From TrEMBL:
Keywords: Dioxygenase, Iron, Metal-binding, Oxidoreductase. GO terms for cellular component: endoplasmic reticulum. Transmembrane segments: none annotated. Residues 24-219 form the Prolyl 4-hydroxylase alpha subunit domain. Its cofactor is L-ascorbate. The keyword Iron applies. This is Prolyl 4-hydroxylase alpha subunit domain-containing protein. It comes from Cochliobolus heterostrophus (strain C5 / ATCC 48332 / race O). Signal peptide: none annotated. GO terms for molecular function: iron ion binding; L-ascorbic acid binding; procollagen-proline 4-dioxygenase activity. The keyword Nucleotide-binding does not apply.
Length: 222
């Protein structure tokens, strides 16, 4: 059952939701994470970063750094509760531990899926139903999140979209805007993964470039 934390006063985030794609469902949530929450998460994570992994090992396809926020961190719980409420009061027990991912020059996460394919899981286990990818810091250009299987043509769209997405890209690239999050639904109604949701984290290219993202995953029994 969903419940809001009662032992800690959660900060209210006044956010704006814009739907980028109806199928697959991809939404941009502006101001989903508050400045105070951003600073807190960055401080908690700083001493916890280790080399990012895929499965149980390291790989050249993902050379960023990863840190996990303790499950009892009150601000982390508030952010999870906000993500649960956004999805229609999801059970907080279905939320994975919050994960921060830090990218510096040339660090990336090549195209991948957040969900596991059918041959990787057994019936009666959990798979990642949804993803929020929040941005805590971005001092880089062209280091957004790319969806290579989703074609995009913004020529005839409102030009205000161009501060949210890369309007010059042939496929969907969401720009890294601090405080904002991109939300998408990984699984189809039958519980299988949506193959269109292949995505990757583009690398900062400048020497001083850096991007810190926040992964919020919600699980579903399949």
């Amino acid at each position: 059952m969903w419940s809001r934390p009662t032992h800690f006063a959660c900060e209210r985030a006044v956010y704006t939701v814009r739907t980028i794609s109806y199928y697959p469902l991809i939404q941009h949530i502006e101001n989903f994470i508050t400045p105070k929450e951003i600073e807190h998460l960055k401080q908690v994570a700083e001493a916890r970063y280790t080399r990012s992994t895929i499965g149980v090992g390291v790989s050249d396809t993902r050379n960023s750094s990863t840190a996990y926020i303790p499950a009892d961190d009150p601000i982390g719980i508030c952010i999870q509760a906000r993500a649960a409420e956004f999805q229609g009061y999801m059970n907080l027990k279905l939320m994975e531990t919050l994960q921060l991912t830090k990218y510096t020059k040339d660090q990336l996460f090549l195209d991948h899926y957040d969900f596991k394919h059918n041959d990787e899981i057994s019936p009666g286990t959990y798979n990642r139903e949804t993803t929020f990818f929040g941005i805590l810091e971005a001092t880089c250009e062209e280091c957004g999140t790319r969806f290579p299987r989703i074609q995009a043509n913004w020529t005839h769209e409102d030009p205000r979209w161009c501060r949210i997405v890369d309007c010059d890209a042939a496929d969907l690239v969401v720009k890294p805007t601090p405080g904002s999050a991109t939300f998408w639904v990984n699984l189809l109604p039958d519980g299988t993964g949506n193959e269109d949701l292949l995505h990757g984290g583009l690398p900062p290219q400048a020497e001083s470039g850096k991007k810190i993202g926040l992964n919020i995953w919600t699980l579903k029994l399949v």
